[in-house]
Write a structure and sequence with these properties.
Length: 285
């Protein structure tokens, strides 16, 4: 079996130093659509160095996402075909606000391996800390098609009961034609998001947007509309990637307030609200 769950879980964590500065933060914010309108005071918090704050989803690209998912798939006990790999979900837990510039140690390991029958699920955990202590914890849920069925633990269900009633807020966010080309400069160079021929080989009519770009756009919408623009209020952010988005489309982001959290559903407007992000929740102070 290509995945040896016991060996993967017992493998030594991999650590490395990561660094970022305001330019990395600004580039990331531009990549998720910040800066429109360019002179809007609320947008300048994402683009102007003298006012800069850091959207928590920046944690997924800080230090170019290192150690990233691809390096995790080369951990002992894991030998899989990348063509069978899907990014199924993402969770960030914030321990304190992310500084505009920093140097930290990122430690990555496989935290769990689940048997879903037709697929295996790897939980790739990255814990990041600087000299002052823990900063954030990233969990990427990676589906590996065709690698389940060995009788292992199925793991917890990540499906949430759908929010009831009309959303408290609904916003639409257009995706520029060049959105993926800009976002990939933050470190995800997968040609699936840029090369039409590669996209066709992967079964798509044209390049698709990075799921983590949609993830960042959605968190920004929640912060800007329901959290008073205060990135420091975000405590955690979790989602399941339910479908693809194509550059040039429009995201419809629906938000429901609950005590201490916001439930979110995201669909593609031009495809009859085809699901994009599901089981999405932002926990906040």
């Amino acid at each position: 079996m290509p995945i040896d769950a016991a060996k993967a879980l017992a493998a030594e964590p991999r650590s490395g130093e990561i660094t970022w500065d305001r330019k990395d933060v600004q580039l990331y914010h531009l990549g998720i659509g910040a800066g429109i309108p360019a002179t809007d005071p609320d947008e300048l918090r994402y683009t102007l160095e003298s006012r800069l704050h850091v959207l928590p989803s920046f944690a997924t690209v800080a230090g170019n996402g290192s150690p990233g998912v691809i390096s995790g798939l080369s951990m002992p006990g894991v030998d899989v075909d990348l063509a069978k790999v899907l990014h199924g979900g993402q969770t960030i837990e914030l321990h304190r606000p992310i500084p505009v510039a920093g140097t930290a140690t990122a430690t990555g390991r496989i935290a769990a391996v689940y048997d879903k029958g037709k697929a295996a699920v790897l939980v790739m955990r990255t814990e990041v800390a600087d000299a002052e202590g823990p900063l954030w914890t990233n969990d990427a849920q990676i589906f590996v098609r065709g690698e389940g069925g060995w009788g292992g633990d199925r793991g917890p269900s990540t499906r949430l009961e759908a929010p009831s009633g009309e959303p408290d807020r609904t916003v639409e966010r257009p995706i520029r034609e060049d959105q993926a080309l800009l976002y990939r400069l933050s470190g995800d160079w997968n040609p699936l998001h840029a090369d039409p021929e590669f996209a066709k080989l992967a079964g798509f009519e044209r390049p698709i947007l990075h799921g983590l770009c949609t993830y960042g756009m959605t968190l920004k919408a929640v912060v800007d509309t329901l959290l008073g623009g205060d990135v420091g209020r975000v405590r955690s952010y979790a989602t399941r990637f339910a479908g693809v988005v194509f550059p040039g489309e429009t995201l419809r982001i629906r938000m429901w307030r609950t005590p201490g959290s916001v439930r979110v559903a995201v669909g593609a407007v031009e495809r009859d609200d085809a699901p994009v992000l599901a089981d999405t929740i932002v926990e906040h102070s």
